[in-house]
Amino acid sequence: MSFLEKFANSYTEDEALLLLFFAVFAFFWVVFFAALLLNHFILAVPLCIMAEKAGYDYPFIAFIPFANYYLIHILPMKEYSFLGMFKTYERSKGFWIYLSLTYFAPIVLWVIAIPFSFIPFFSIIFGLIFQVLSFITVIAAFIARAIMYVDLIDLYLGKENSGMSVFLGIASLFVFIMFPIVCIVICRKEPEFGFGNYYKPISMQREED
């Protein structure tokens, strides 16, 4: 009797099905995390090149999770605007808006919802409110991510191609690995403020001249 036959005979049909389920489940998560890791490094390389050519002092943070999103937010020099409702030239605030809507807000909503779920009457009312707030949070997080993408792409395509920047930014929300590929294509282009001028953009130099 071969090893495979012995292995097959050592388990009942139900146990074999259970093992198969866990194997498929484990395989799915391994592939999922491998894809996330691959996507992270495919984005990190061109993002690091962008930061280095722009003259930013710490381009290596492109390889650090979450810090890479901070880098994407701060590289563009234009005013950050969240649908015109919030505007600032301190672009790091845009990063915190993105982080809050994407990661913090859902956790806060769940923490608030848990106590109400044990109260019969309030659980129904708050359940509806929770669903609405969750939907609004998800939409707001998608908008914040799109703004992050569009602003960075626009830095390299320029104002004359702002329509293309918007298209590519929004499309990157729905097409996996599209944003990293766009970054690979544009990473060697000159940013709007010139090579090495992150801390002293060309526009500022011209004003001084």
Kindly report the spatial arrangement of strands forming the biggest sheet. Answer: 1-2
Rg, nearest Å: 23 Å
Shape: globular
Helical residue percent?
over 70%
Distance between the termini: 88 Å
Query: Biggest sheet, open or closed, and with what strands and sense?
Result: 2 strands, antiparallel
Could you tell me the number of beta strands? Answer: 2
What structural category do the secondary elements indicate?
mainly alpha
Low-confidence parts, pLDDT < 50 over ≥5 residues? 203-209
Instruction: Report the β-strand fraction as a percent range.
Output: under 5%
Order of helices and strands: HHHEEHHHHH
Number of helices: 8
Mean pLDDT: 85
Please sum up the structure shown.
The chain has 209 residues and is mainly alpha-helical. The longest helix is centred in the first third of the chain and has 42 residues. It is globular.
Properties at a glance:
8 helices, globular, 209 residues, two-stranded antiparallel ribbon, mainly alpha
